[in-house]
Amino acid sequence: MTDPAQPAAQVQAFARKAELEAALAAAPESHEARTAYFEFLGALSSSNTGLFWVNLPELAAPLAARAGTPDLHELAKVFLNRALVFDSAATPRRILVLGAHAGYGAVDLARRFPRAEIAAVEPLPDNVRLLRMNTAPWPRITVVPVAAWHNRALLAPMGRFQADWSVRLSDEGLDAYRVLQAEPVAGILAGLGWSHADMVVCDTTYSEREIFNDRAQGWLAALDVLLVRLYNIGTPTGAEVVAAALPAETFEQRKLGEFDLFTRRTPHSAEPPLPAALHLLRGEPGLKPFRLSEVPQTSWGFFVFDSHSCQLHPSGTPGKPSRAIFGVTEPGYQRFVAGLSHAGIVNAYPVVFTVFVVRNDGTIAAQADATVTPQQTGRISLPLPAIEPPFHIVLQTEMVAGAQNHRLAWARWIGPRLV
Predict the structure, then answer these.
(1) What is the DSSP secondary structure assignment for residue 64, as one 8-state letter?
(2) Whole-number pLDDT of residue 271
(3) Is the pLDDT of residue 164 over 70?
(4) Is pLDDT above 60 for 273?
(5) What are phi and psi of 189, to 5 degrees?
(6) Residue 183's Cα: distance from chain center in Å?
């Protein structure tokens, strides 16, 4: 039977959701505002089914959650209770998330470790669907749709404890039910092209014994940080197997909420944290403003491609070069780097590419240029001067002196960025 009040109630609920999101955006560090938002989402989730979106001020893209499931509980663990936040001397550059579920932990790790590559490993098809959706805006996250195990095998879901969050897998079920591909950690790393992982997060519902049962596994020797949820069933228990794989003389162990945290006493990857490479052309979620000057007003005058590259077509008017101007507000960068490409036909005229570092008062602090002929490529690498932000990076293209036209001068900046 249809409830005639339902549409009005839904409109009212989503209006309230927008109010709470606005309050949290205005006070992103307010635990009270964050708690009120998650309490409302919990009530929304418990009285509906279907997908809904969660907007958090620290993330530039929303996260999807399934109403009527434990998704909201798991999301709150990460973004309300900070389940994966810890202090460590290590600076992980490759992070393996085993049991990535809907991707909430992987997204939080990508935000907190801006130079790390992250592999999100998850075998259950419905989880993988949501995992791909939530991690799509984060190019440093790779989804691996398999289960982690001690060997290559086909697994069967044998016990379901919480929707698609807590599902126990087994390699002993009937062949008809063994449909989930499993790989050892070494095989997962090889498939990624990784020699090792600096950090592993493991929440695999009773599979920790199978994953850590071989102390001779090479990936353990390179591991600096393990965050593992221990379920402690069977003989030996998961806690005993993991403790044997990560001995106390090498790793310090402590509790972190529902997880056990193991940190190498002398980490391999302990270099000081560096800022993430700043791509001037942003492929990640969120808008980054910039300005154009003297660019031809056509569809090919300026466009972004491959997320971080652009075509900046010369204006063709002497003394009025085409420019793209980007503001920089973050410190810590040492160099500007970019590839260059002239994609025009062979008999087109060469293009001069120039980059300027411009102080806030409009004076030029540094510059570099390169001339590229048709069908050729080049590169600019410019050390940044010792100036404090804010400042501007200006990308400029113009025709070489004496050029008679600017037709087919397809001037392209490939991945311009600060490192």
Answers:
(1) E
(2) 66
(3) no
(4) no
(5) -65, -40
(6) 23
